[in-house]
Design brief:
The complex is a heterodimer of chains A (415) and B (92). By secondary structure, chain A is mainly beta. Chain A starts with a helix and ends with a strand. Chain A is globular, with a radius of gyration of 22 Å. In chain A, 6% of the residues lie in helices and 53% in strands. Chain A has one domain: Porin (Beta Barrel), CATH 2.40.160. Chain B is built from three helices and four strands. Classes of the chains: A mainly beta (415), B alpha+beta (92). The interface between A and B is large, with 52 and 42 residues.
Chain lengths: 415, 92
């Protein structure tokens, strides 16, 4: 049982980070089962989806397998499977389909007094709001100090075969309706597109936590605005496909405003191919109702200043921005760093008793003739094993002759 | 438990293979392939980034699509910033 808890404690953050975006929302990491009395755990997830957009009918299916070995300090986890998709365009009378295998995770994780180290193919999420949310073949090391300092060092290579926005994991091929989208560059072979970064975060409240239990049972008063974390970030992308290399540095913070309000601002300076400033912020309000319902409202903005540095007419269009943020705002449009400036508004309401959630999301660009999208989703879990999501999306784009509607039904079955 | 695990894997693989076979056989639609207008190609490699079949390679700084490998998904078409990729019917 203890082993199971240790494994789940490690794997749950992975699955939560996957659920944070609408792409790649696998639940496999959080639903593994122990094999007998051994240290091994396993799980299978079957995903099936049917969608309709712009007179195109789309089916996709994924079969994912996960196998985990863990003891007190060591974890080995492998996750992969098969993917199938079919698309029929009834206006153009054309179709395409394929089936292929892929690997999503294959890493070794070790924890000791020096910190935690993860080696191999892993989901990497940087401590800040913006920079990295990617699958990377490489290493990451995290170390927390009692004084409240957290250091996260990571480096690795990204390939289209396992990247979040790559060929195996994402659903982009299903909804590529905008002509000539600004696609981030993903290497075909290892070493062509790489990243490295360092975040140093400081929790001013760490010392308060340490001395909070004074034995008198008196709760210390907290100010209305509480800086949870403030940090520095240094980040770079390099490789034979990334010329010149991109280098970024900046500051980020995680601020609690009280009553469930939270704010995550970030400011970065980008050097290299496109010098300029990148600024973004996410505001979130979480409410727990008396009937145990939960509502989360969030608003985010991602903007740039002089990011193109007057080079928009230049021949070098390889590097429009950093490539591995995977913000992917909007089910169809999937706004990412090349699409900035844009904003995201969403409300998600969860009814635990019915195991149901409702979500409404609106994304749009803040430029002349912007692309915008409205998404709605309702999902319900059956028997803790089957999740069914129904979603609708409406895209408004000056680049299209008519505004398409997306209808999609998706099921995820874990066993 | 081991048998159950193996059965689950076999079951999932069979579902993957049969679902696409059924869909492919019941639709009366054409297949297309894609080609590169060489003078327009700027060699940015974005089409290589999105091709699920590894059907595109770089020759003398220009993208070239291998017709034997292409499945006609069209992702390269929408990723090309220079509009250098175009569709051709399979019959050609």
């Amino acid at each position: 049982m203890r082993k199971e808890i240790i494994s789940l404690l490690f794997l749950m953050p992975l699955s939560i980070s996957l659920l944070a975006q609408w792409e790649c929302p696998s639940r496999l990491g959080g639903s593994l089962r122990q094999i007998g009395e051994s240290n091994f755990m396993w799980g299978v997830e079957l995903t099936g989806g049917a969608g309709y957009i712009s007179n195109s009918l789309i089916f996709n299916q994924m079969s994912l397998f996960g196998l985990n070995y863990s003891n007190a300090r060591h974890t080995i986890y492998i996750e992969g499977g098969f993917k199938t998709w079919y698309e029929g365009d009834y206006d153009l009378r054309i179709k395409s389909s394929t089936i292929f295998p892929g690997l999503r995770e294959a890493f070794y994780h070790h924890t000791n007094s020096l910190g935690s180290l993860t080696l191999g193919l892993q989901s990497l999420l940087s401590d800040d709001l913006y920079l990295v949310n990617e699958r990377v073949l490489g290493l990451s090391h995290k170390k927390s100090f009692p004084c409240g300092l957290n250091i996260n060092l990571f480096t690795g290579t990204v390939s289209k075969h396992f990247a979040r926005n790559g060929t195996f994991c994402n659903l982009a091929y299903l909804y590529d309706i905008l002509p000539y989208i600004n696609q981030p560059l993903l290497g075909e072979s290892l070493g062509q597109t790489n990243l490295a970064g360092l975040t140093v975060g400081y929790r001013p409240s760490a010392k308060d936590d340490e001395f909070s239990d004074d034995g008198l049972g008196v709760e210390k008063s907290r100010s209305l605005v509480n800086i949870e974390t403030v940090g520095l970030v240094l980040y770079g992308e390099f490789g034979s496909w990334i010329k010149p290399p991109a280098v970024m540095g900046g500051v980020y913070a995680n601020i609690e405003i009280g009553n469930g309000y939270g704010l995550k601002p970030e400011l970065l300076y980008a050097a290299g191919g496109n010098a300029g400033l990148i600024y973004c912020a996410k505001f979130e309000k979480s409410s727990m109702w008396q009937n145990a319902h939960r509502t989360v409202f969030s608003a985010a903005y991602y903007g740039t200043f002089n990011a193109d540095n007057g080079q928009s007419g230049s021949k070098n269009k390889n590097k429009s921005s950093n490539s591995f943020s995977n913000i992917l705002a909007g089910t169809v449009l999937r706004f990412d760093t090349p699409d900035m400036p844009f904003y995201m508004l969403s409300v998600k309401h969860t009814i635990p008793k019915l195991k149901t959630h409702l979500k409404i999301q609106y994304v749009g660009q803040t430029k002349t003739n912007p692309n915008t999208e409205l998404d709605m989703e309702i999902g319900k879990k059956f028997f803790n094993k089957l999740l069914i999501n129904a979603s609708y999306g409406y895209v408004n784009s000056p680049e299209l002759l008519s505004n398409p509607n997306l209808f999609r039904l998706e099921m995820r079955f874990n066993f | 438990m081991k048998t159950k695990f193996l059965k689950s894997i076999i079951f999932a693989v069979i579902i993957s293979a049969t679902s696409i076979a059924i869909l492919d056989s019941c639709e009366v639609l054409d297949e297309v392939l894609y080609a590169v207008n060489e003078p327009k190609c700027n060699g940015c490699k974005k089409c290589l980034s999105v091709c699920p079949q590894d059907a595109i390679s770089m020759v003398d700084g220009k993208a070239v699509i291998n017709k034997e490998e292409c499945i006609g998904c069209g992702r390269c078409l929408s990723s090309c910033p220079e509009k250098a990729i175009y569709a051709i019917p399979v019959s050609e």
